[in-house]
Write a structure and sequence with these properties.
The protein is mainly alpha-helical. It is about 50% helix and about 10% strand. One of its GO terms (molecular function) is lysozyme activity.
Amino acid sequence: MSDLTISENGLSMIASFESFEPKAYYCPAGVLTIGYGHTGTNAQGQELQEGDTVTPEQAKRLLYEDVLWAEDAVNEQRLHLTQNQFDALVSFVFNVGATAFAHSTLLKKLKSCDFEDAADEFLRWNKAGGKVLRGLTARREAERDLFLS
């Protein structure tokens, strides 16, 4: 089985749920950030500085680099997935983290090839601080829909 990589469709879906900022800014945690939540370097690979800017195309490339760890986390599970299933899972893992995914009922159901019930598990991950968030609900519905398509 060969490892999959996220498609343009999957990357666009992730970008649609991340806010785009063309100019470097300090996020609430005080970290210099640009594009779709990218930190560390600018589009030229240099240390990110105040005043740096990024085009939407450059930001998408940085986002692709940022999701590589999520791709790896999904691929290391050695699941037999379609491209859409893979894209949905990369989006999910990018948002909730590899550890949460590794211990999730969603993954348990995938490993037992229960894809229909696994798809419904996306919808359970719509809370932060114990509260349902509209943005997370929309993201999980989009991930589920992509997973099932």
